[in-house]
Amino acid sequence: MKATARAHPNIALVKYWGKRDELLFLPFQGSLSMTLGGLSATTTVEFGDGREDAAQLDGRWLEGAELARICRALDRVRERAGIRARARVASQNDFPKAAGLASSAAGGAALAAAASWAAGLAPAPRELSILARQSSGSACRSVEGGFCEWSAGEAKDGSDSFAVQVAGPSHWPELRMVVLVCAGEAKEVSSRDGMRHCVETSVYYRAWVECARQDLEAARKALLARDFAALGAVAERNAWRMHASAMGADPPVVYLRPATLAVIQEVAALRAGGVPAYFTLDAGPNPVVLCREADAHRVEERLSAVPGVQRSVLAAPGGGVERLERHLF
Ligand code: DP6
């Protein structure tokens, strides 16, 4: 009744932004991401005879809302497995919070897998993706590696809302993402709150959904054709559109900081100088720049020198969730 899983974070090229169902984590539109190799969350789950679920994240015991989130994920697995045992959970990220990457995607995928395996289940990737989705939407795209598309689906119960691999890591191994950390601290408005606020109040939310659907088609096509300029262009315009919808909320949500804009300008300057590079931006101040392996060091060096950039992280396409024999406890 014990298992350990490792999963990687992912960065969306076409974003997930807004839920049509808050409880089941069902989005209004599909999204497409790259899984980041080299960075991971590892989670061990053991079902035993304890009286309550207990969970540790990076050595810290969780309480309150954080623990409740883990318990709900465990409940979904217990229900499927027909067991009642309480669990001990430990999770460890090998990338610091200050790396500017949310750990909820990698953590949610690793927890869904470790809990399922510990409960004796052997879920197919589709089922795991559905389980992971209910911890954090973006986690459903970290079950498989390479490039994954999360279909919004139409079913009320969410049974058709999961991510599938569009292409494996070897489809485009020379693609790179450089994360430019412009502010390491916790962000002011979480993705969860920010997207809810946009759905409820943004005058541009409808337009966002419509555009994101078109962007998804264009991005999938560019990805499959390995058309770097086309993929980069969609990623940039999709990020701008997501942030435009946030700025159109009432009150507005602005995630960009002066250093964020300075990096974006430098990306345009790189491109004007003949180095193909494109940015994307999640619900925070840290741009992620898409470039090719041959240019990665030059891009990283140039953008790291932009005033306000604190550090950078370079990643290549990574794999899906894996089972590890070594447990965390
Ligand atoms: C901007 O998956 O963190 O990064 O489903 O509420 O847990 P919840 O939100 P989360 O949102 C990610 C939003 C995003 C875009 C993306 O990753 O697609």
Order of strands across the biggest sheet?
8-7-9-6-1-16
The unreliable regions are none
Number of helices: 8
**Helix-residue proportion:** 25-40%
* Major beta-sheet overview: 6 strands, mixed
Beta-strand fraction estimate: 15-25%
Mean pLDDT: 96
Q: What would the principal axes of the Cα set say about the shape?
A: globular
| Total count of strands | 16
Radius of gyration, in Å, reads 19 Å
Distance between the termini: 13 Å
Q: Would you list the SSEs in sequence order as H and E?
A: EEEEEEEEHEHHEEEHHHHEEHEE
Please identify the structural class as seen in this structure.
alpha+beta
Bound molecules: ligand DP6
Describe this structure in words.
β13 and β14 form a beta hairpin. The longest helix has 20 residues. Helix content is 36%, strand content 24%. It is built from 8 helices and 16 strands. The protein starts with a strand and ends in a 5-residue tail after the last strand. The strands form 4 sheets. A 6-stranded mixed beta sheet has the order 8-7-9-6-1-16. It has a 4-stranded antiparallel beta sheet with strand order 2-5-10-11. The protein has a 4-stranded antiparallel beta sheet with strand order 13-14-12-15. α2 packs across α3. By secondary structure, the chain is an alpha+beta fold. Ligand DP6 binds next to α4.
